[in-house]
Backbone:
């Protein structure tokens, strides 16, 4: 927990207290003017207000008392009272060597919480398309980040496997294959030989939807089937289980490609098991109202600028709503896991839904007072033209197709002499390019997906980062092949080395910011920055032919520090590094 910067801050605080300034916290930050210092302290201006003194005087007093700190090479004051520190080489070297041995020390924030993350949210019998990309990427990266900062996490895919779409699909299958045993009154749960594929399902669902829209009696039939399914009609239930299994297998394959995984593969159907209990509780709380034939919970607040409509639990046609499912999900999660926080990584256009659900949950006290429900909405990924991302023939772009397209571009860009595992390497790079591009914009920002730009080797891209890492790794491998032993930095010779380590010093602050904002863009920017700094160093110094052994082993150790740390950061983002590029 005790980061070098935090230790230094406490030391400065102690000095300030000793010279008579009653101050509870000191923070020093990377300098806005790197030409003047590495880090700066801006507290003299505030102290000046509190103690009715001139900030320059205060800064001078502070500097006089920090003079002997071995952490600093020099300390200066800039008007109107900024204190600029230049770190001593020993301080930087000690920090770098400690980090080399303890990469995780730059991440562990001592967060002692259980965080439940709800992301992915794919729907059974529907295509997993580009609209599902960000939930999976952002959700998984936040999950990894939570673990890195010390939290315990539980992740749930929250499959959309319940409700009218299921009725529609079953009704269409029944029309096509009326003789299947599932539809016989004497069906008793036995295995049915009936081949159904994911391709079938994604064709059946839209067909069924169109038919039902055009024909009310089909819609009515689908509703009826759905109702019976929810009451565990033997045949419908067995067929539904088959449908879910097929979809799940397909979804799992794509998530595996994206390095996305879940502790729980629960669906809305699992939450539904808790519906009776939940309603009994809500009725006992006397919180449910009748409104135009629907059952609702009032959630508006006097302070609302926009009117928040009541949350509908049961619609006027008696169907259980999406809102009710999410209420039941909270009920189940609190009961089983009692998390400190539940994070939802869902399209920002669902914000109203979650506002209603969170208010109803707190009003009805289905959460403990300390349970925090947090909506982490995200913006849309559009095509290059800013319009919804489409396939060449104008349909929604399946995620599998997006991955294949980007892989194809990456494969073309790979150098010719990579012949073995070419496809696998291209795919790893493609996933890195997709994920980095997706995590780089601030979470709620919409962005345009541009395949050429995002796979470019030069620029703020995943490809650039991966290439740089592969190069660092190959340098380290060559050093090992030459039997060079290196495990610590002993000297700093160039300005770029200092810049790299100073940037490493800032990592913990970046991690904290990222965790507090539930966003990965800070980490993405940081990776780009430190990789650039390293590449400047790399271009400037010929590491392996350096004759001074101390310098050479220091450079290799620095390379290892940045490589290991980049690997760790990329892992948080869910990005793997290819063997070669
Ligand atoms: N399946 C939903 C959809 O496609 C997303 C689920 C989000 N999570 C939740 N707990 N509601 O819109």
Residues:
């Amino acid at each position: 927990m005790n980061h070098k910067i935090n230790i230094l801050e406490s030391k400065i605080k102690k000095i300030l207290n000793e010279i008579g300034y009653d101050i509870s916290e000191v923070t020093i930050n990377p300098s806005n003017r790197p030409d003047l210092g590495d880090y700066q302290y801006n507290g003299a201006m505030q102290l000046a207000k509190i103690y009715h003194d001139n900030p320059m005087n205060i800064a001078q007093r502070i500097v006089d008392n920090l003079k002997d700190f071995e952490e600093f090479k020099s300390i200066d004051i800039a008007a109107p009272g900024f204190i600029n520190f230049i770190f001593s080489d020993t301080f930087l070297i000690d920090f770098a060597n400690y980090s080399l041995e303890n990469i995780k020390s730059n991440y562990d924030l001592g967060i002692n919480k259980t965080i439940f993350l709800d992301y992915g949210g794919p729907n059974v019998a529907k295509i997993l398309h580009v609209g599902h990309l960000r939930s999976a990427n952002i959700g998984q990266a936040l999950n990894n980040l939570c673990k890195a900062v010390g939290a315990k996490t539980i992740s749930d895919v929250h499959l959309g496997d319940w409700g009218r779409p299921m009725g529609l699909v079953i009704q269409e299958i029944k029309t096509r294959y009326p003789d299947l045993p599932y539809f016989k009154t004497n069906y008793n749960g036995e295995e049915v030989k009936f081949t159904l594929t994911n391709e079938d399902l994604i064709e059946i669902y839209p067909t069924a939807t169109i038919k039902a829209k055009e024909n009310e009696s089909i819609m009515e039939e689908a509703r009826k089937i759905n109702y019976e399914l929810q009451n565990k009609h033997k045949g419908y239930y067995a067929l539904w289980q088959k449908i879910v299994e097929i979809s799940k297998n397909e979804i799992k394959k794509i998530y595996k490609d994206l390095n996305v995984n879940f502790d729980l593969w629960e669906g809305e159907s699992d939450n539904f098991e808790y519906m009776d209990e939940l309603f009994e509780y809500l009725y006992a709380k006397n919180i449910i109202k009748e409104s135009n034939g629907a059952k609702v919970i009032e959630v508006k607040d006097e302070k609302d600028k926009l009117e928040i409509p009541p949350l509908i639990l049961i619609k006027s046609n008696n169907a259980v709503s999406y809102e009710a499912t999410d209420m039941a999900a909270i009920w189940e999660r609190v009961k089983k896991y009692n998390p400190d926080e539940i994070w939802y990584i869902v399209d920002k256009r669902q914000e109203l839904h979650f506002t209603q659900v969170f208010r109803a949950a707190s009003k009805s006290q289905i959460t403990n007072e300390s349970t925090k429900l947090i909506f982490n909405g995200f913006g849309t990924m559009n095509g290059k033209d800013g319009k919804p991302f489409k396939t060449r023939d104008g349909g929604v772009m399946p995620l599998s197709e997006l991955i294949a397209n980007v892989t194809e571009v990456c494969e073309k860009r790979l150098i010719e002499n990579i012949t073995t595992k070419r496809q696998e390497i291209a795919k790893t790079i493609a996933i890195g390019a997709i994920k980095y591009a997706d995590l780089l914009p601030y979470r709620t920002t919409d962005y345009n997906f541009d395949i050429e730009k995002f796979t470019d080797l030069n620029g703020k891209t995943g490809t650039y980062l991966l290439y740089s890492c592969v190069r660092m790794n190959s340098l380290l491998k060559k050093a090992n092949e030459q039997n060079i032993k290196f495990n610590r930095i002993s000297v700093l010779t160039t300005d770029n080395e200092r810049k790299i380590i100073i940037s490493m010093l800032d990592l913990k602050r970046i991690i904290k910011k990222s965790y507090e904002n539930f966003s990965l863009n800070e980490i993405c920017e940081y990776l780009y920055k430190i990789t650039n700094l390293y590449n400047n160093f790399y271009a400037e110094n010929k590491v392996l032919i350096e004759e001074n052994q101390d310098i050479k082993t220091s450079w290799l150790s620095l390379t290892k520090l940045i490589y290991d740390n980049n690997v760790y950061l990329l892992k948080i983002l869910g990005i793997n590094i290819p063997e070669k590029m």
Observations:
- Residues 158 and 266 are 5 Å apart (CA to CA).
